[in-house]
Amino acid sequence: MKALEKSIQECGSIKELEKLRIEVFGKKGYFTAQFAKLKELKDDEKIAFAAKVNEDKGRFTTLINSKKELLEAAERSEALKKDAVDVSLYSRLSDAGALHPVMSTMDKIIEYFMSLNFSVEDGPLIEDDFHNFEALNLPKFHPARDMQDTFYCKDGALLRTHTSPVQVRTMLSQQPPIRMICPGSVFRRDLDLTHTPMFHQIEGLVVDKKGMVSFANLKSILEEFLRYMFGNVDVRFRPSFFPFTEPSAEVDISCIFCGGSGCKVCKNTGWLEILGCGEVDPNVFKAVGYKDVSGYAFGLGIERFTMLLRGVGDLRSLFEGDLRLLEQFK
Ligand code: DAH
Q: How far is the CA of 26 from the centre of ligand 1 (A)?
């Protein structure tokens, strides 16, 4: 028994300890043998013997358990030493991404209008004729539909050609007053230097009781917005036509590249065409069942804003996923 105790104390691994434990407590081990001896003893000897064996059992249990703990601790610290990580080492530089310039322009515009308490609305990319055209005062066979080369899907569904259908959806699901913008992608059958089949727009709409919203409000809000985006530019409103607004206007800013004196970008006009807007056409209100209201709307292309703000010359380069372009905008 003394020898077993000594072996346990001196043992150097958990495996070895387990072997010893079996030698002590196993079926063929030390204690089984001890208890077997009981049978051969006289009754008065039995009690003292059993008490002694039980005491030994307790001692061995403690001995083995505490040895096990020691060995485990040693093993752990050994493993820690072996697998140590030097946290003071420089890490390899990773290729962290960044927001695409179109998305960061979008975010900036959204932030601006949110600060004016506009809600941000969403709508489906696959639209129907009613929301994309009809309710926006673009009846079937209206020549203005030609301005928007449309991708048609099955069963009369189509890819929305602008974010204006979200105006319609918002008015159908909410009551005035409405102040909303809707950012998102739109689709047209177009591909050249200045057009891609998918691009992004932001639509704005404000509706309130008749007489509460005027063209003057529209003008001031857009002037402020454009100066926020482009700095101290001149802003001008040119009469134009959109089926969903009356009167309608196109808005120009003085060229941010030449300051208005004329250059390649502004085609020597000194002005950059930047967005479309107007007072909501009464036919649009009729289509959504609104009465005694007035409102204004505007729509802009986010890629155009991005190209001007970041000096990107070719629209298509925004969609090629070339890391060299993207890395410039980190
Ligand atoms: N939906 C127009 C387009 O895609 C943009 C637009 C122009 C929206 C004038 C408007 C607006 O709300 O008033 O070309």
A: 87
